[in-house]
Specification:
The complex is a heterodimer of chains A (257) and B (249). Chain A is mostly helical. In chain A, 81% of the residues lie in helices and 0% in strands. A six-stranded mixed β-sheet of chain B has the order 6-7-8-3-9-10, sandwiched between helices. Chain B has a four-stranded antiparallel β-sheet with strand order 2-1-4-5, with helices on one face. Classes of the chains: A mainly alpha (257), B alpha/beta (249).
């Protein structure tokens, strides 16, 4: 028999999930609302949409704007954040745009995006970008500004160039906050992707949610919502693993695992 | 012969005069301490010598050349260690060589040699947060030694460690000075530390910042590191410096 070594963290995580699902099951059985199915009903529905393949077709639609939007936000977000953090003038010029983007009510902007870009992929990608980019840009900028000056002085005193300072000091030093920004950005991006599917054109996982709601098939609706939450958590965990692997000494217990 | 000459250096931060018309020579192969109360410009002077900040007027001359920026002839040891938290001990020690473009295997060989010299063999793959304060500063010292600079600039290097570690580091520094034959410029707040490690002590006073006195201990420098603290000349110099400094604290 294989000996499975469960760490305390894993036991706590499993207990937490067990507690949540039990509460869900009880709430569904009471029921707190006729539109709130039990945990087991929702899981049954999840298995059935997995078996009939509809969930995979849905995700192939949902993930395209999501990944495109997140990739664009991460790439340009980190570059813009770096520029803002390094130059005061860029800070004054660009920061306000992202602060406004972060504060803007997205739902109100969607009709505007549809008018400009139509109901296709571009609009959905934009919704994901509007949701995820500000937090990535502003976090990166803050982290870059707060790079310890003694590390930068050390780099210059050992004859490092400005490029060395950016690549070997500022970026690795800012990486915990940049990754925190990426994680928040990815979470916001997931919200953006679903919002786009609910508000622009019902496709992908948003279509399953709105279609099953209109039919009163609440277990399927909750199964779809549950699946997107699981996917978001998995994605955020993958980001943590990348951070752990790339910047070992930077973690001193602030990463959840 | 002087390794470093500081000629009429002034440095102003807005209306604040950090240094005013300061001149000082640092003899080759010796350790000179810059000692003085807070705000007398010790660290500012050290950073000007390092080329990290430019003086408002005056010049620093090393080997006949005016210092305008950091150079391969100087290495800096920082008060807060300035170690890269994401890099292992060996990568931190080899960082100066990495910036110089030395290839990985060569720089790791050199780094291992100095890691052993500062007594950290076995900790090569540890990260800074796994080390004590004293060990962190040993890493900082090893990093400065790897680049083989003639002048080592040390900014209060032992101020962030506990008293016992500090004494051990001071003793190890004396042994290292004899072995490495480099010029050390050492900023400190501690009178005992300055007298213990220095061949020459420059006492700096604030408002306006100036060199008030240069003391060169002679009698106890050849003694064993364990016996210096009981030497009467050592104790007299400590007492004398305290008497001249206490009016400015």
């Amino acid at each position: 028999m294989n000996k499975i070594n469960f760490s305390r963290a894993n036991i706590l995580k499993i207990s937490s999930a067990f507690f949540l699902f039990t509460a869900w099951e009880i709430a569904g059985r009471v029921p707190i609302s006729f539109a709130f199915p039990t945990f087991f009903e929702s899981m049954e529905a999840l298995i059935s949409i997995i078996l009939n393949g509809s969930i995979f077709i849905a995700y192939s639609d949902t993930l395209r704007p999501l990944f495109l939007g997140i990739a664009i936000s991460a790439f340009f977000g980190i570059i813009l954040g770096l520029c803002i953090g390094l130059s005061e003038k860029t800070d004054w010029f660009i920061s306000p745009i992202f602060i406004i983007m972060q504060a803007a009510p997205l739902a109100a902007l969607i009709p505007l995006l549809i008018m400009i870009y139509g109901v296709q992929l571009t609009s959905k990608v934009f919704v994901v970008i509007i949701m995820s980019m500000p937090v990535i840009v502003l976090n990166t900028a803050g982290a870059v500004k707060n790079t310890p000056s003694s590390l930068q002085e050390m780099c210059f005193s050992y004859l490092g160039s400005k490029k060395d300072n950016i690549l070997k000091i500022i970026l690795p030093s800012a990486s915990p906050i940049i990754f925190a920004g990426l994680r928040l950005g990815v979470s916001a991006g997931f919200i953006g992707a679903i919002l786009a599917e609910l508000k622009i054109t019902p496709t992908g996982i948003g279509d399953i949610i709105s279609f099953s709601r209109s039919r009163g098939d609440y277990p399927t609706m909750y199964a779809a919502i549950f699946s997107i939450i699981v996917l978001a958590v998995l994605f955020i965990n993958i980001l943590e693993k990348i951070e752990k692997y790339g910047f070992k000494g930077n973690q001193k217990g602030y990463i959840s695992d | 012969m002087n390794a470093v000459e500081v000629n009429n250096i002034s440095k102003n931060y807005g209306n604040v005069e950090a240094l005013k018309n300061m001149s000082l020579n640092f003899p080759k192969g010796e350790l000179t301490s810059l000692l003085g109360p807070s705000g007398c410009g010790k660290t500012t002077l050290l950073k000007i010598i390092a080329g990290l900040i430019n003086p408002s007027s005056g010049e620093v001359i090393i080997d006949g050349k005016i210092v305008k920026k950091p150079g391969p002839d100087r290495a800096f040891v920082f008060q807060d260690f300035a170690l890269l938290p994401w890099a292992s001990v060996i990568k931190n020690v080899a960082f100066g060589l990495e910036l110089k473009g030395v290839n990985k295997s060569e720089r790791e060989d050199i780094a291992k040699k100095y890691i052993s010299e500062v007594g950290l063999t076995g900790f090569e793959n540890n990260f800074p947060h796994e080390l004590s304060g004293g060990m962190k500063q040993r890493v900082g010292l090893a990093r400065a030694l790897t680049v083989n600079a003639n002048v080592l600039l040390m900014d209060e290097p032992f101020s962030a460690v506990d008293e016992q570690t500090r004494r051990k580091l001071q003793e190890d520094l004396l042994i290292l000075i004899k072995k490495e034959k480099k010029t050390f410029i050492f900023v400190t707040h501690s009178i005992e530390e300055a007298v213990y490690v220095s061949d020459q002590i420059a006492i700096l006073l604030p408002r306006p910042s100036r060199v008030s006195e240069i003391i060169k201990p002679s009698g106890f420098k050849k003694k064993d590191v364990d016996k210096i603290r009981r030497d009467s000349e050592y104790l007299d110099i400590v007492d004398k410096i305290w008497k001249s400094l206490k009016n400015y604290i």
